[in-house]
Amino acid sequence: xxxxxxxxxLHFTKYQRTGIFLLFVIIIGLQLFYWLSDFTISETKNxxxxxxxxxxxxxxxxKMVVENNKPVVFLFNPxxxxxxxxxxxxxxxxxxxxxxxxxxxxxxxxxxxxxxxxTGVSDSLLNKxxxxxxxxxxxxxKKEIKLYSNNDYAKKEFPKKEKFEILDINQxxxxxLIKIYGIGEGLSIRILKQKEIxxxxxxxxxxxxxxxxxxxxxxxxxxxxxxxxxxxxxxxxVNEASLKELSQFPYFKxxxxxxxxxxxxxxxxxxxIEDLAKIKDFPVEKAKIISLYLEY
Length: 296
Hints:
Blueprint: H1 3-9, H2 14-36, H3 47-69, H4 83-89, H5 93-104, H6 112-119, H7 123-129, H8 137-140, H9 150-155, E1 167-168, H10 174-178, H11 185-198, H12 215-224, E2 225-226, E3 236-237, H13 243-247, H14 254-267, H15 273-277, H16 287-291, E4 294-295
């Protein structure tokens, strides 16, 4: 195609050139208008509506906090109240000790009235905590048990109750533990491993620290075993032990051991477990057990 032919196609009159120029101006103007204009719809603000929405949001947040902080209540058998549990319930040390002494005789409270008779708790405290008590089903349905006459007892022969020897838990073998109903190979190994870590058991309450033991199994263990602290138990001298030695004690963590060493260096030697309990994050619920592993 020659240059003259191309020039003929691209040749515009004066009016055509003016029209094309105006068209470009309009297009560029519309583009600038599109990019520079704000097409968002502005909503008319209502002060009362905004105030109500703010209050509603505050109500929702407070309701959520209350629901999250609502305590979960669990029923429990009062025969297995520990020192810490009794303290949380509001019982005094004397009341807790009465219950523990009663349980050491292998006796059980079977009613709210009997619990108050054994512990001596006040009526106000009893009314507060008794709704949380849960006794075994056979206690609740005791009245449904059939009563036999003397003739029935004379005719029926009952098997004699088998007597068993109460063993020292620190001398128990895996075979001894497996004889307990509810304990298999896995749980027996776990109990022996815990005894190895601690050096020995100093209280049957330590069974509650072993994962996987149900209250029923712990009850059977208490019926068949007792604790005899061996004379070979190497106690930790809390006033002389190093940070490493204290942190290796299972009931102490490194942070707590460091606080013990710091407190000891600033305030002098510890005299008893009460002095140790003053340290922040000390497991006071385990104080009686811990004290049996220490010396001063």
